[in-house]
Design a protein that fits this description.
With 154 residues, the chain is α/β, with parallel strands linked by helices. It has one domain. Helix content is 32%, strand content 19%. Bound molecules: iron/sulfur cluster.
């Protein structure tokens, strides 16, 4: 089974109430091939919600307690982001998933690159909080961009 960021399949769970739907992933959901997850909603955050970025580090640093997830108006959202990551890990174990596909650049789901904490659309190297926790626990995690590129389906 594949675990996937829900917004990629067309579920409107993004911070602004929209989605990041791609037909390849929406079709996978229609065929029952994926389990969808939105770590930020699992962590108790509403839809819509304030945009957030990781300040002074990456998802790994948030897991270690040396960086925080902060909203664009300065609220510390580290606790719900950590809870969402933990619940996503529990789901990944429950469904015995062999691949995780996560939305690029997100402070939860980003794999390889995330927004840099300045709210200026700049990217830095690193993973979001959920991506980092899943990788630390041995799951195979790829971004939506990598997954589509490998298959020539961008
Ligand atoms: S937390 Fe992940 S699944 Fe949820 S909206 Fe953001 S990128 Fe999509």
């Amino acid at each position: 089974m594949i675990l996937i960021s829900a917004c990629l399949c067309g579920l409107n769970c993004k911070y602004n109430g929209g989605s990041n739907e791609h037909p390849v992933f929406a079709d996978m959901l229609d065929r029952g091939e994926v389990v969808t997850v939105c770590p930020e909603v699992l962590g108790g955050l509403p839809i819509p919600r304030k945009p957030a970025e990781i300040i002074n580090g990456t998802g790994y640093d948030v897991l270690e307690g040396t960086a925080q997830v902060i909203s664009n108006d300065g609220e510390d959202l580290t606790t719900p982001f950590l809870l969402g990551a933990k619940r996503t890990l529990e789901l990944a174990r429950e469904y015995d998933v062999n691949l995780v596909i996560l939305k690029s650049n997100s402070p939860s789901c980003g794999v390889g690159e995330i927004y840099d904490g300045t709210f200026s659309h700049r990217l830095r190297e690193g993973c979001g909080v959920t991506a980092a926790l899943l990788k630390e626990n041995g799951f195979s995690v790829v971004s939506d961009v990598e997954y589509l590129k490998e298959r020539g389906q961008e």
